[in-house]
Amino acid sequence: MAGGTGSPVARFLSRFLVRFVIALVLSTAAVTAGIVAVNSTIDSELARIERIDVDTVPAPDGGANYLVIGSDSRAFVDTPEDALAFGDPSKETGRRSDTMMVVHVEPGAGRTLVVSFPRDLWVNIPGGIGNAKINAAYNSDLGGGPNAVIATLKANFDVDINHYVEVDFRTFESMVDAVGSVPVYIDRPVVDDFTGFIAVEVGCYHLSGPEALAWVRSRHLEYLNPTTGRIEADARADIGRIERQQDFIRRLAGIVVERSIDDPLKGRDIVHEVVDDLRVDRNFDKRAAFDLVEAFRSMSSTDTSALEFVTFPATEGNAGGQAVLFPDRTSGAALLEQLRTFASAPAPSALRPSDVRVKVLNASGRAGLADDTMAALVAAGFVRGGTGNDMRGRLAVSEVRYATGAEAKAPS
Question: Is 0.70 surpassed by the pTM of this model?
Answer without folding.
Answer: no
